[in-house]
Design a protein that fits this description.
PDZ domain-containing protein, Thrombin, subunit H, elongated, 20 strands, membrane, single chain, alpha+beta, 442 residues, six-stranded antiparallel barrel
């Protein structure tokens, strides 16, 4: 196929056409023979014999492709240009959408968590660290102070009494499953025969007064309830100064109160009461655990949760009981003494009082210590051991005596039948004797 401007038939007959365009000669160089710049030297189509795409013998025809008619001939094969912009598939669009959704979800989740930790959309600042915090319901070791308190509180009660002498409030602790409770005599000593007991869960139960020992300040009441949890008793004779202790009770009407301290002293002897009134003698365990009005009758326990004393008295510089408060000087009746008296009250309705069979009348002349015996009962324990009026008792089982109440309080601590060592001075001679204590004939 050609543009038709100088075409000849194969037999040499020229075919009219448009004259060839004039080609200006190349400046400075002669035209080469047979080149395109010299058309007269060779037919223009002579090179076509060597053109693999041109056969000079083939007749030339111009074909105009008609539009296909329905039903006539086959449709031409579609031709596509690889360089032409084409229609893209949906896969890239889907992938982009998926990745965008995942990123948006992750970002939204992160922001939501951050707002939740900070307390909401307000963006408040989170204080402290949550790393390593124990669960809210974590239990303390049984031998820790918290573990001891948890174990003892169900056995500690508030005691409320009312009677002719007024209204009294104190504490107590359960000693049997069927409802016996130990408390102080001065808690129930208002002339009442009945009382109300409040447990640590807030439930209440009526109780009756079983018996009491006013001089030792111990009383037993009985609660109308069974299945209670009694305390575990310790041994007050093995307590040492410095041992950790907890005091339980209802000080100043604040139920379920627990305070901590140590044993400050042992066998702290004193008496309370005036002539003509009730006189009480104590050979007490001293503690610095906070004890106030209302703690009376509650338990003093050791580090293992065993009861070693009954909280009873506080020392205070206050002028009257109404304004008295804790100053770190509190006293508890040793549990060995309280338990013995409570057992006797439960078994017989009353407690026996331990005596030495002698009357003490004053300190040794010169104030150098010891207590002087003013009289000896002929058939009493002191007389049986060889003690006489005028002897000065210096020590009882190694404990120094300075006041007559010291001897009485220490003797009351022991059970009838106990054997104690007594050091005394007769004249200028120092002697010792073993005395077997007895129960008062009363």
């Amino acid at each position: 196929m050609t543009d038709g401007w100088n075409w000849r038939q194969p037999d040499g007959t020229a075919t009219p056409g448009n004259p060839p365009p004039s080609t200006p000669p190349t400046v400075g160089a002669p035209a080469a023979s047979g080149s395109a710049a010299d058309p007269g030297s060779s037919p223009w189509w002579s090179d076509a014999l060597h053109d693999p795409w041109r056969n000079p013998a083939t007749p030339v025809a111009v074909v105009v492709q008609a539009s296909p008619v329905a039903g006539v001939g086959a449709a031409p094969e579609p031709v596509s240009d690889p360089d032409a912009p084409g229609r893209r598939g949906l896969t890239p669009v889907f992938l982009v959408s998926l990745i965008t959704a995942l990123l948006a979800g992750a970002l939204g989740g992160s922001l939501g968590y951050a707002f939740a930790v900070r307390g909401g959309a307000g963006g408040t600042t989170a204080l402290g660290s949550t790393a390593g915090e124990p669960p809210a319901t974590a239990r303390r070791p049984p031998d820790s102070l918290a573990g001891v308190a948890e174990r003892l509180l169900p056995s500690v009660v508030t005691v409320r009494v009312s009677g002719n002498g007024g209204i009294g409030l104190g504490s107590g602790f359960v000693v049997t499953q069927d409802g016996y409770v130990i408390t102080n005599d001065h808690v129930v000593g208002v002339g009442a025969d009945t009382a109300t007991v409040v447990f640590n869960d807030g439930s209440t139960a009526p109780a009756e007064v079983v018996g009491k020992d006013p001089e030792a300040d111990i009383a037993v009441i009985k609660v109308s309830r069974t299945g209670l949890k009694p305390v575990e008793f310790g041994d007050s004779d093995t307590v040492a100064v410095g041992d950790p202790v907890l005091a339980f009770g209802t000080p100043l009407s604040l139920a379920n109160t627990v305070t901590a301290g140590i044993v400050s002293a042992l066998d702290r002897t004193f008496r309370q009461g005036e002539a003509g009134g009730q006189v009480r003698y104590y050979a007490a365990i001293q503690t610095d655990a906070a004890v106030n009005r209302g703690n009376s009758g509650g338990p003093l326990v050791d580090g293992g949760g065993r009861v070693i004393g009954v909280n009873s008295v506080i020392q205070t510089p206050a002028a009257d009981e109404e304004t008295a408060g804790n100053v770190g000087l509190a006293f508890a009746i040793p549990i060995n003494q309280a338990k013995r008296l409570a057992q006797e009250i439960i078994d017989t309705g009353k407690a026996r009082r331990t005596v030495i069979g002698a009357t003490v009348g004053g300190t040794r002349s010169g104030g150098s210590g010891g207590v002087r015996i003013s009289a000896v009962e002929p058939s009493g324990p002191a007389a049986a051991a060889g003690l006489q009026a005028g002897d000065v008792v210096l020590r009882l089982d190694g404990r120094a005596l300075e006041d007559p109440s010291d001897l009485i309080a220490l003797v009351r601590k022991y059970a009838p039948g106990s054997v104690v060592n007594v050091e005394y001075r007769r004249g200028s001679e120092r002697q010792a004797a073993s005395v077997t204590l007895a129960a008062d004939a009363k």
